Amino acid sequence: MISGQPLHDLSIFEASQLIRDRQISPIELTKSLLKRIDEVEDQVHAWVTVMYEEALRSAQAAEEDISRGMVRGPLHGIPYGAKDIYYTAGIRTTGGSKVEPDFIPSSDATVITKLHTAGAVLLGKTTTTEYAFLGGAPHTRNPWNLNHTPGGSSAGSAAAVAASMALFTLGTQTAGSLSRPAAYNGLTTLKPTYGRISRVGIMALSWSLDHAGAITRTVKDTAIVLSTMAGKDPADPTTLSAPVPDYTLALGQDIKGMVLGVPETFFFDGIDPELMKAMRAALQVFQDLGACIIPVKLPFSFEDANVAHWIVMRTEAAAYHQDFYKKYADRYGPSIREALELGQLTPAVDYLRAQRIRNIYREELLDLLQQVDALITPTAPGPAPEGIAATGTPVFNVPFTCAGVPTLSIPIGFTYDLGLPLGLQLVSRPLSEELLITLGDAYQTVTNWHQMRPQIKDG
């Protein structure tokens, strides 16, 4: 415990500084998080596998390196979790499915390798909906109210950070599976530009829509993790060759004069009243910080692009799962089975038409994003829905996942009666992650929503 704060409640930024200053050790930090897992996992159900011995060995190695002055960077000795669709060598990787429940990869995902090289400590694998699709929700619960969903598909990844069982976690987004869980759990996530992070060694859902990313407490933490995760991977031809900046240099910058566009339709139609109030307050914060807020019109192709997204997603998922589905159709859950069968029935002309609509929409969206520094919308239409059989709607995330542009979700408040988190989404041009980090960090510098921690109890 540091100044009355449990070690498991630290942010990456805080823990990294304490490790560097030798005030805490990676072993102490890892033991604190493993103890926290023992205390609350039976209520939250965020983990598929917890690697007690392996994590402590990694922490010991990190401690020995650091004691010799061999500090690899800000993630050295920082414990994290990985969504159970990331390959981890020698560690069971289920994909949240009964299709291959005992699959053990022989190699790590590229991102896991990068984090290992940076000295991060893998605690285990977190729950996911089946193969990161919408259906087959795990039994994971929202730490802010155990009667509510944590969102999905990165359910366990969000719940683990919210419940202080990991300092950050890895997730993926094909529709809204990073943004929505982050918003539902009072957390921060940056879904990067398509191709900014390698997807080698991550179970695919839809090749042209899948994004890898991390769920963290703060924008500062997001900047640290993204600096390690991003970059060209020769094994992934979709990764971008643009140099990776030090994203932490985007922290603490002035946002005076930046232009934020607020869509006039769709994103504010019928949203939760408490969310609307929180959004107005957040917009005022950005204005007080010097940003200019203007109304904007959504692209003409906006609604068609949403339909196209699901056609592409289902069809590509059906192609990826084709061989396994022929052998093990009875092992798939009903939700993903229905989606895969719809994908199998999609004519090639419909898939190609959907991709054409998507390309037109992307160009129109990029034109809009040239007129503003960022768009600002709610991350979801409201707080986490009650029940855990479903994971909520990604309707506010799909338009930007479809276009492959970067988005940042940050917490902006809580509902009054149930104390459920609410989230705001910032959207910008491709490879504008630094701009989003600057905006989000400026907001978190003058607000404290990201510092809140849940009291884990039934609603």
Automatic annotation (TrEMBL):
Signal peptide: none annotated. InterPro entries: Amidase, Amidase_dom, AS_sf. GO terms for molecular function: catalytic activity. Residues 28-436 form the Amidase domain. It comes from the Bacteria. PANTHER family: AMIDASE AMID-RELATED, TRANSAMIDASE. This is Amidase. It comes from Effusibacillus dendaii.
